Amino acid sequence: MRTLYEKPIKYVPVEKIALEDRFYSIRPFCFNAETLIKSIKITGITTPVILEPLSPERLRIVSGFRRVQAAVEAGQAEIPGITDYPGGALEKFWRIVQENYGSQELHELEYAEIIGKLKELHGVDDESLLSRFLPQMGLRDSRYELERFLALAGLNDHLKKACYRGNLLCATALEIRTWPVKEQEFLTSLVSRMMLGTNKQKQVVRLIEDLKKKTGDSLESIWATTGLLDTGQEELSFEKIHGRLSAMRYPTLSKSQQEFTRLKEEILPGRRIRLQAPRYFDGEQLTVSFSATDAFEFRKKAQQLLEASSRQELKEMFSLL
Amino acid sequence: MLKYRPEKILIEESVVDEPMTERVMAKLPGIPYEKIPSTDDLITEYKQNAAGAASGFTAAKTFLLLAEQKGNFLKKCPGQQSRGQSRNVCCDYHVINAVSNCHMECSYCYLQGYLNFPYMIVYANTARLLRELESAFNAEPETLFRTGTGELADSLALDWITGYSEILVNFFSSQKNAVLELKTKSDCIENLHGLEHNGRTAIAWSVNPPGIVASEELYSATLEERLAAAARGVDSGYPVGCHFDPIVDFPGWQGEYEKVVERIFNSVPANRVAWISLGTLRTTPELYENMRKRFPMSPLPLGELLPSVDGKLRYFKAIRWEMYRNLIDWIEKYGGKVPVYLCMERPDLWKKVFNQEPPEWHDINHQLVSYMLNMKSGK
Q1: Mean pLDDT value of segment B54-78
Q2: What is the ipTM of this complex?
Q3: Do the Cβ atoms of A143 and B299 come within 8 Å?
Q4: A4-86 CATH pick, 3.40.50.1100, 3.90.1530.10, 3.40.190.10, 3.40.50.2300
Q5: Residues of chain B contacting residue A284, judged by C-beta atoms under 8 Å apart
Q6: Is A153 left (phi over 0), alpha (psi -120 to 50) or beta?
Q7: How many inter-chain contacts (A to B, CB under 8 Å) are there?
């Protein structure tokens, strides 16, 4: 049997190629083709793409989506292609996947795209996906993984682009996939501007998601309640956002924290003597700490503590625990 | 309530000839079944394919596995096992693991984060169970054992298939230092009528306001059904118990929980209530995520659940204190002096709630068992 590159290569006019047909594509989008475009302008396409007849006058791309897109943008009129690639649709698709998988690291969304197409377009059942296709791509053959990838495959274009560009975690995208698109865009923009890493993204999204569910309010309304609408870009920080959202999410805790802070300021203003409640007030002890550079300072702070010990405010602080 | 019917029965080779197996098969005619050499391959397959997937946990429940309990049937309550680290006040409860998993779907159920193999399992080597219990109780004649079958399962949800209640009630009726609690969200107490329980078995119901039962305790009996069953239990002379667990924080909880307390004491006389336990909603971080995944519409994860010292998520302490104090006041208002204890709470909160130092764990157990045994029989 002839190998792929022994097959006759034809030069196909670009207008005969159905550029919008992504039946065989494993990438949700094509980005960053500038280098390829420059190269094609100089040398043309050096590796033929693989095409198959869609109708008597039109061909669809089987392999080489980026090259074709780049060639079009480079102003090429014709593209070298192989048009009699053997095998049925599933066989071709899987061969292309294996070639890609073997030569490069695939993005989570690319795995999702592949798995989604295997199921939806090629009719592969879940058992086969679990027993054959996922393991061959080096993925865990678990139902959890399968469900996750299928959910990723079902994301809308905005979220896919945000994930593909690295602005949004795939896990975050899954959390917000049912939000209105405008809210998804707002969050993506926020996450991107703040350059929030994995943990911080998770924390912010979880807080917003919970507030949306709890209050039934839109993200816009919640954001307005945080008081951060008028905060300038430079002043906006993760700590500020997290603090405001947490206060709304945990109002009783927040009230206790504010009361504790107020009482503390009454009896021991400033930061020279630290008085700490247990984390989330889950405990019965206050922790006191201070530093002193000499005996005089030590005595002075001890005196302040002694005075604070008889204050009503201190009793109220203990009653918060 | 929805009675459980499996889609398939799997029978481990070692229990094929057990009387329990025969009984279960007789109760489920027409259900396809398969004999398997052991459960090891099943467990491996489940862990590989379905573990972690929301659909996997639910799908596993459609299989009923009749198996041999190879470990101990009798164990200390898991809350007790964490006592050393968490310093929670404990009631020294013991659990009998004769059945594992539950077909009801309570959104907060800890089993969805605890069981790594969620098939419905009935351990059919019953003779060994009774020998083990006998041996354990005889080995510590000075200890009062309060034991229950409702930790890894609902005590009575599968009883129409297994009849385990008859076996255990009869066994415990002659025990000198042990009592049995059958804890349930069902109203399946038919097997219990007419048994000579000798006052050594209590039937207890988990209770919640009707709205919470409907939205968060799927396939379970309604509160009305549970209380009607409790009244029937009392008529048969059983002491009864109530478990407000989990107590859920939601708008209007005060009014709703007070109504539940009132309805309890309208349904059963206070002098037939052996104990009431109180425990607010608590989850492990893993369970919390499972809840959100499996029950995305449930409002329970939206409460002010915060990390505690023992690693669990609980309501903010002030909220818990308010819930406990209110419930204790209502219990006293409608039922008088009924033994009340908190489940899995720290000593400092216990002290705040009861205005006294918490008893030692064996004292709590002793008080509860003694109270139950001294209750005048309803018969």
Answers
A1: 88
A2: 0.85
A3: no
A4: 3.90.1530.10
A5: 348
A6: alpha
A7: 67
